[in-house]
UniProtKB/TrEMBL annotation:
GO terms for molecular function: ATP binding; cyclin-dependent protein serine/threonine kinase activity; RNA polymerase II CTD heptapeptide repeat kinase activity. ATP binds at residues 14-22, 37-38. This is Cyclin-dependent kinase 7. The lineage of its organism: Eukaryota, Metazoa, Ecdysozoa, Arthropoda, Hexapoda. InterPro entries: CDK (IPR050108), CDK7 (IPR037770), Kinase-like_dom_sf (IPR011009), Prot_kinase_dom (IPR000719), Protein_kinase_ATP_BS (IPR017441), Ser/Thr_kinase_AS (IPR008271). Residues 8-267 form the Protein kinase domain. Pfam families: Pkinase (PF00069).
Length: 267
């Protein structure tokens, strides 16, 4: 029987994190180009079978979820010191596109990326899943321009009124006010707020609220968000209208942005 690892011929190194290495490969059985994420196996204290909880969560969710705007998990196989996840290969991500000044982002592009992300989120939320780590470099784009939400290491089921969650999720710049205040019970609003920050970044071509600490993040939010002035007693700043910040954006995008960056976002 052929070893699973032999099926995937390495082509190029793509990146490395604390617990995982990602490389581009060719599936010799189908000749398809894929991405292989090799995750280091932790101690048995970390999770069942020695595989860290993040990897287990990602595998379990991606095996159950299928949508055109979610990254596809094609295969899973293990070795003594690691477990490998095989994904659709994606050519780029939204962070790279936003930062590349040579790429023109038309209003149509902004709307298309926003709609595809929202469709993926809608599917997740309909299946009672929070992504909890939405940010531009987790929004992957293939050669056909299709956007797929990736990296489900922090994703988690929601819905129980008694479920206690960690507030240390979502990269700070995309973290909602309730998470910054330490909320342990929350819902789809954390993903929708992050989506609002991403839409703002698409329009500005720079991060909208790049806080240097949780306190600084809250300060930036309260300076820029007029609709949050009643949320808590905080140092008073002259609130700005989003329409003034995003003066070139169309009315429908401004309306969407205001609904996403709200205490009562659309579910």
């Amino acid at each position: 029987m052929e070893e699973p690892i032999l099926r995937y011929e390495k082509i190029d190194f793509l990146g490395e994190g604390q617990f995982a290495t990602v490389y581009k490969a060719r599936d010799v059985k189908t000749d398809k180009i894929v991405a292989v994420k090799k995750i280091k196996i932790g101690s048995r204290l970390e999770a069942q079978d020695g595989i860290n909880r993040t990897a287990l969560r990602e595998i379990k969710l991606l095996q159950e979820l299928q949508h055109i705007n979610l990254i596809g998990l094609l295969d899973v196989f293990g070795q003594k010191s690691n477990v490998s996840l095989v994904f659709d290969f994606m050519d780029t991500d939204l962070e790279i596109i936003v930062k590349d000044s040579n790429i023109v982002l038309t209003p149509g592009n902004v709307k298309a990326y926003t709609i595809m992300t929202l469709k993926g989120l809608e599917y997740l939320h309909q299946n009672w899943i929070l992504h909890r780590d939405l940010k531009p470099n987790n929004l992957l784009i293939n050669q056909d321009g299709i956007l797929k939400i990736g990296d489900f290491g922090l994703a988690k089921a929601f819905g129980s009124p008694t479920r206690i969650n960690t507030h240390q999720v979502v990269t700070r710049w995309y973290r909602s006010p309730e998470l910054l205040f330490g909320a342990r019970q929350y819902g789809t609003g954390v993903d929708m707020w992050a989506m609002g920050c991403i839409l703002a970044e698409l329009l500005l071509r720079v991060p909208f609220l790049p806080g240097e600490s949780d306190l600084d993040q809250l300060s930036r939010i309260f300076q820029g968000m007029k609709n949050l002035t009643d949320y808590v007693q905080f140092k008073q700043f002259p609130a700005q209208q989003l329409r003034h910040i995003f003066s070139a954006a169309s009315d429908d995008l401004i309306q969407l942005l205001e609904s996403l960056l709200s205490l009562y976002p659309p579910s």
